[in-house]
């Protein structure tokens, strides 16, 4: 029997309790070809990229969420109901998705995250993935627009340390601010954040990212001289 790259599963919407079907990529399927300096993965089979199915969308109420979304409070449910569900035209994102479909799902998840006051590092993760998807579409204008939004969200996350207790670390947040700033040609900002990593008290605990920061710091200085 041939094993397909994707499979369907049923989820219960945290907002309206509706059961709906969504597609996932099998954990064993994706083969990595390349990882960019801002951690975007290029897969051997981009048509069945896990990025396309990261967001779950309830077909009934329109609530969009991920495995990292926080629990939704009764207050947030009421806000989602008013701002999303009442304007929602019931439709399903539970089948195979194009990159454009996935971007629509991410934008809906971003809107839902803002409405429920999701932590900034979670919002930043969604914004970053949208920039990656626009990169795969070679849409540089939208890619940069979402990178700038990501930088803004990660800076807010860094300021209040809302990433503590998550898979994100302070050094990783600083690196993403630095690298995305570099990609947006905000060289002073990039150099400042890379410098904070090199001098960080926990530098010995994350040697890989610290070394990468040193490399990107040097690249940023060289790029800045040309502009």
Describe the structure.
The strands form three sheets. Strands 1-2 form a two-stranded antiparallel sheet. It contains seven helices and six strands, in the order ββββββααααααα. β1 (6-12) and β2 (19-25) form a beta hairpin. The relative contact order is 0.09. Helix content is 48%, strand content 11%. α2 (99-115) runs antiparallel to α3 and α6 packs antiparallel against α7 (207-225). It has helices at 74-83, 99-115, 120-136, 140-160, 170-183, 187-198, 207-225, and strands spanning 6-12, 19-25, 32-35, 41-43, 56-57, 64-65. The longest helix has 21 residues, at 140-160. With 227 residues, it is mostly helical.
What secondary-structure arrangement, pairings included, does this model have?
Elements: E1 6-12, E2 19-25, E3 32-35, E4 41-43, E5 56-57, E6 64-65, H1 74-83, H2 99-115, H3 120-136, H4 140-160, H5 170-183, H6 187-198, H7 207-225
Antiparallel strand pairs: 1-2, 3-4, 5-6
Helix pairs in contact: 2-3, 3-4, 4-5, 5-6, 5-7, 6-7
Gist of the model:
This protein is mainly alpha-helical and 227 residues long. 48% of the residues lie in helices and 11% in strands. Helix 3 runs antiparallel to helix 4, helix 5 packs parallel to helix 7 and helix 6 runs antiparallel to helix 7.
